Amino acid sequence: DTNIDAKLETIAKEQPEVASEALALRGKAAVANAKLAYRQFEEFFIGPRWEALAAKGARPQRPLWASTSSKNPAYSDLIYVEPLMGPQTVNTMPPNTLDALRDHGTIADTVRNGVDEAQAQVAGLAALGISLEAVADELEADGVKKFIASFDDLLQTIDQRRKELA
Length: 166
What we know:
By secondary structure, the protein is mainly α. It has helices at about 1-15, 20-25, 30-45, 50-55, 95-105, 115-125, 130-165; strands at about 65, 90.
């Protein structure tokens, strides 16, 4: 949402004729994308093909909603938690989000709710020229660079400590 919200703000400024549509989609992309991914997950793990695999011991790889804290203080602290609850999901929320869930959250099977709305939101983004696939590719590349930098830092620290102990 942080990435897409910035794009929506730019569109709203540069194209006033679609500003209201663009601004109405802020904070919607991540949950919409996750709901559509969950729908695909469920479709993949049903039917004869899956049943045959399951009979041989296969188990589904569950969807993971990672680091689901709200990054925008204007949004609910549970924006990425409450709408994505459902069977077979894993949520790695940070402690403050877990505390918020315990304090004022509602536990319910919600991940299947609003899938048509999610599809419409993704279509709305596409109509504005925002491709979820392109954003995902960009975020993945950035994430990989960060993991590589962290790994390189770790290797440097290990090498430095090794030299100090030698």
